[in-house]
Specification:
With 109 residues, the protein is mainly α. The protein has one domain. Helices cover 77% and strands 0% of the residues. Helix 2 (36-57) runs antiparallel to helix 3. Keywords: Signal.
C-alpha cells in the first residue's frame, strides 16, 4: 500500500510542477507531440488510483466500478478543459491517467 501512495504523491507533485512551468512560458509542443514525463506521471497516478480503489472496495465490485467510472469522468472533463486551454502537458497527464486506470502497475519483485 505504501508504494501506491508514494506513486500518487509523486504523480501529483510532478503534475503541479509541470503545471507551474507551463503557465510561466508558452508551450512549445504541438498537439501531435506527447510529453513523456507528463504522460508517465499520469500513468503512474492512474495506476495508483486503480490499486487504491481495488484495495478499498475489491476489484470487480459495484463500488469499485463506480469509483473507477467517476475517475474516468473526472479525467475526461480535465482532458476537454486542457484541450480548450491548449495545455498539452495537462492533456498528456490525463491521457496517461486514463491508461493507468485501464491497466495495473507491474508487480514489484
Amino acid at each position: 500500500m505504501k508504494p501506491v501512495w508514494r506513486s500518487i504523491a509523486l504523480g501529483l507533485l510532478l503534475s503541479c510542477l509541470q503545471a507551474g512551468v507551463g503557465h510561466a512560458a508558452p508551450a512549445t509542443l504541438s498537439n501531435e507531440q506527447i510529453s513523456p514525463s507528463d504522460y508517465y506521471s499520469g500513468l503512474a497516478t492512474g495506476q495508483g488510483y486503480r490499486s487504491h480503489w481495488a484495495s478499498q472496495y475489491g476489484a470487480g465490485t459495484p463500488q469499485y466500478t463506480a469509483a473507477i467510472d467517476a475517475e474516468y469522468l473526472r479525467a475526461s472533463r480535465a482532458i476537454q478543459a486542457a484541450r480548450q486551454n491548449g495545455d498539452t502537458h495537462e492533456e498528456d497527464f490525463w491521457l496517461g491517467f486514463i491508461d493507468g486506470l485501464e491497466r495495473a502497475a507491474e508487480e514489484e519483485v
